[in-house]
Amino acid sequence: MGWSVAAEHLFGRTAAHVLGSSVFEVVGSLARGRAWRIVPLVQEPRERTWGVWQDKDEGSAGGGNEDLLSLGEAILDAVFTQADVGLHFLDPQLRVLRVNPSAIGMRGISLENVIGLPAVEAYASIGLRIDEGMLREVLDSGRPARDVLLRGRPAADPEREHVFSVSVYRVRNGAGRALGLVATTVDVTARERAQARLRLLHRARELIGRTLDVERTARELVDVTVPDFADSAVVALTDAVLQGKAPELAAVDGEMLLRCAAAGSTRADCPPPPTGSTLLPALFGPKLPSTVAILPAEGAHSGRTPYGPRLVAPLSARGQVFGAVAFERLRGGEPFTPGDVDLAKSITTRTASSLENALRFTREHIVMTALQSWPIGQERQTQRAAEIAQRHRPGGSGAGSWFDALPLPGARVALVVGQVERPGLSAVATMSRLRTAVQALTTLDLDPHELLARLHSTVLRLDREQKSVQGSIDEPTVHCTIAVHDPVSGRLDAARAGRSLFAIVRPDGTMDADPLPMGPLLGGDGPPFASTSLVLPEGSTVCLASPAATREQGPTRRGLAAALAHPHHGPQQMADDVQHLLAPDRVLLVARTRRLPPGEVAQWDVPPELRSAGPAREQTQTRLQEWGLDIAPFTAALVVSELVTNAIRYGAPPITLRLIRGETTLTCEIDDAALAAPYPRHAKATDEGGRGLYICATLAKSWGVRYREDGKTVWAELDSRTTGPDAG
Questions:
Q1: What is the pLDDT of residues 601-643, one digit of tens each?
Q2: Could you tell me if 501 and 520 are in contact, meaning their C-beta atoms sit under 8 angstroms apart?
Q3: Residues with Cβ < 8 Å from 671, sequence gap 6 or more?
Q4: First-to-last CA distance in the chain?
Q5: pLDDT digits (tens, 9 = 90+) for 226-258
Q6: CA angle 701-704-708, nearest 5°?
Q7: Strand ranges (E), 230-305
Q8: Poorest-pLDDT segment among 114-123, 199-208, 587-596, 675-684
Q9: Residue 443 per-residue DSSP state
C-alpha cells in the first residue's frame, strides 16, 4: 500500500513498480537469501498497518557483510545529508530516486518536483538540458563523464544564468549488477565567468589596435565585445580625433561633440546609430564619464526604447579624451557586475592606448605624405631634355622615398630616385635633408658617382648628429640612383648606390634591365659606387624606382619587361603599367629622352691661337641674330671672347665652342683637354689680363665648370631678362 524513499534506496525499485503487489512476492524476489520480519506497526480494531524489516541474524556467517552494508548505508546517508556538492541518484531507467538538500537548495526546487521523474524531464523545468545519451553511455560502459558543463537559470536566482559542472558515475552491487547512476553537481558560474573574462581580454589584446587606424580600432572594439560582453555597443569619438587632430583635454562639464565611430547590436528591431552621426551626451549618462560606471536601466531613454542594463566607460589616456563607449544588454537581461567593470576598464584602456597610437601615426602620416609627395616641377629645361612621368604608390609606411628631375646647365637634366631604409618619420626627415643636399650638389656639375660620394658623407654626418642628439643606435642607410642626360650628345651618365630599380628601353623595344651593377648603400660601406656612361638614341626610355623591402616584393625581370617593352607607349602609360608592380609606398620615374634640334645648337672648333677670339665673337653675334634672342650682342660676344681666350692661354687643344639656345637664355660652352681648374682673379689696376672669368661672372646669370675624363667644359649662361639690350 506504501513504498517509502528508504525502500526505494534499499531495494532499487520505485513505488510505481511495487505498489499493489504481494509483499511476499516483492520481498521474496529481493531478499537474496536474507531473513525478513513482517509485524504490525499499529494495533487497530478494523485495519492493521504492517511493516517489513530485514531480520539481522547475530549468529549467521554473513554478519560481517551485514555490518559493512550498514556502514556503507551510514556513509551514504552522511554524504547525502551533509555534503556541499549536489548529489543525484538515478535508477537504471534514469529516473531520479534521491537528491540531497544541497542540490535542491542550489536550484530552488522542492523534492516533490523531481523524485520519481525522468532526469531529462525533472531538470528541464529549470532550464537544464540533460543529455540522455551521455547518461546511457555511462550506464552501459561504466566510463564516468567528468566536468560536463550545463547552463540554466535556477529558481533560486532566475535573473542570472548559472553554469554547473556535472560528473556522472555508475553504481553497481556486489554481484556486478548496475543499480543506477550517481551525478555530482557543482556551481562553477564564478569560475566560468572569470575564464570568459580572461578569454575576452585576451581577444581584445590580440584584435584591438592592429591597424593603426582610428575608425578601424573603434570597429575592432565593437567586434570584440558584441555579443560576448554586451548585446550592443556604441563607440563615440570627438570630432578632433576623427579629423586626425590632437585629442581634447578632459572638459570640466563633460560637454563635447561626439560622433559615432562604430556601433553594433544583436537586435534586428533596434539598429545601432549610423557611423558619423552626432550622439547626444545623454547616451553616456548625465555627463561624459570620467571612469567606468554602471548606469541604471530605468530613467534614461534613447528615443526608441528604454535602455537595458548599461555600462559606460571613457576612452582617455594621460588626461586626453578620445571619446567614450556605451555597452548595453537587453532589457531584463543580466545586470553588469563589478567583475564586468574591471573587464571594461581593461578593454577600454587598451583601446585608448591603441587610439593614441593610431592618432599619432595618422598625424605622422600626414607629415610624411606632405614631405614625400611633393611633385616634380616640370620646368621647361627638363622638358627639353626628357618627357617625364612620375608615380607614387601609397602605402602609409613612410618609406622615405623620393624622386627629382633637376635642370642642369647646357639643357641637361638629372634624374634622381632614392629611399631611406627603416621606414618612419625619421626616415622621411632624413629623406628631406638628402633631397635638399642633392639639389645643392647638382649645382656643382659633379659626375653622378662623385655626387653619390658627397651624399655618402652627408649621410654619415646625419648619423653622427642623430646619435649625439637622440641617442639613436640605428644607422641610416640609403638607396639612391642618379642619371644625367645630355640632350645635345645623347649621353647618359649614371651611378647607383644600393639596389634601386634602373632599366633602359631603346626605341627598337630592346630592354636593358640591369645597365649597371648594384653598389654599396649610402651610409654603409661607401665609395666606390657603380657608374656607367651610355649614348642613347633619341626616344629611349629610362625607368627609375625605389626598391622594395625584399627582393620578393619587387617586380620580376619578366614582369618589368612585359610592362616596359612597348616603345610606342608614352611615358605616362608606361608609368601606369609599372606602378602596380611596385611595393607600397614606393616611387617611380619614367623619362623619355629627347635630342635638341640642330637649329638650337651651334658648335665650332677653335684653333689654339689668340687671334681665334675674333672669329668666335663674330660667329656668336651672327648666330644670336639668326636665333632672334633678346640678348645684347656685345655682351654675348664679350663673354665668348673671354672664355675662348682663357681656354687658349690655360687650356689644351682640342678646343670647341658650343652655343645652346634656350627660350630666354643663351648657354656658352668651351671645351678643352686640360684638367686645370679655372678660377676668377682680382687683377690689379696695372695688370693687362686676369679679368676674363671675373667679366663672365659679372655679365652672366651663372657660370661653372664640369669635368670629363678627357678634359673639362667651362660654361656661362646669359639671360635676356638680365642681359638684354635694355637690361641696364
A1: 999 999 988 888 899 999 999 998 898 888 888 888 988 988 8
A2: no
A3: 654, 655, 656, 658, 711, 712, 713
A4: 139
A5: 988 998 999 999 888 887 777 776 554 556 778
A6: 150
A7: 232-238, 248-249, 258-265, 278-279, 293-295
A8: 675-684
A9: G
